[in-house]
Description:
Helices cover about 25% and strands about 40% of the residues. The chain has helices at about 1-10, 65-75, 130-145; strands at about 35, 40-45, 50-55, 80-90, 95-105, 105-120, 120-130. It has a seven-stranded antiparallel sheet, with helices on both faces. The longest helix is centred in the last third of the chain and has 17 residues, at about 130-145.
Amino acid sequence: MNAARRFIAALAGASLLGACTTPPKSEVPQGFGVYQGGEVRQAASFDRVVYQVKRVDNKPYANLEFWRIALKERLAKTGYVVTADGELSAAGKPGYFIETTAPRGVADYMYLVALFVRDKDLVVIEAAGELQAYKAQREKIFAAIKASDFAGGGR
């Protein structure tokens, strides 16, 4: 589990996003164990796919279109291969997701970032895991995001 947690922590820095605050309430993928620590709601599956939800400041203050472009360009420029991206919604609020792959040692890993803009905040969802394990959990990850209501309300 430590390798997967270190991997997602390293990838989190690639997303260009600033300091965390209180984590938004959210669903976690079915079958994932929750381990919440302070500013981030975290969960992991038996096959070491990690999932986290956090809230960060919307700095520089921008709309979803800006963050979509900035995130995609940053990940592509730092060596991640974009495999999918598109629109996504949670509780009727629009969001964006991007999935990438990257080699890690002898294995390939998948990395998901989903974003929802809430005025002064961004809700950032990240998931990562070895390629086959991530693919096996992908449907549950997207179901958890879509079932969450973190995109509404205030801090």
